[in-house]
Design a protein that fits this description.
Layout lengths: L3 H14 L2 E2 L8 E4 L4 E4 L6 E2 L19
Protein name: Aminoglycoside phosphotransferase domain-containing protein
Organism: Stachybotrys elegans
InterPro entries: Aminoglycoside_PTrfase, Kinase-like_dom_sf
């Protein structure tokens, strides 16, 4: 089983990989989610987007038609 330190780092890495600089990374902003068996990062008051997110919209994917 992965230890809590490793799980915390993995969750923080996921936040960073999403283009978010949390700005307040410390233990008080990490919560255990028993349902998902993972660490949740909370308190994004100081967070800043490092870059615009590049989302792929479903409407532009081939084979996906918009409902009218």
């Amino acid at each position: 089983a992965m230890d809590l330190k490793a799980r915390s780092q993995r969750s923080l890495q996921a936040v960073r990989a999403s283009g978010v600089n949390h700005g307040d990374e410390h233990d008080a902003n990490l919560l255990w989610n028993a349902e998902r068996c993972s660490i949740m990062v909370i308190d994004f008051d100081c967070a800043v987007l490092r870059q615009p997110l590049n989302h792929t919209w479903l409407s532009v994917l081939p084979g996906v038609k918009r409902k009218r």
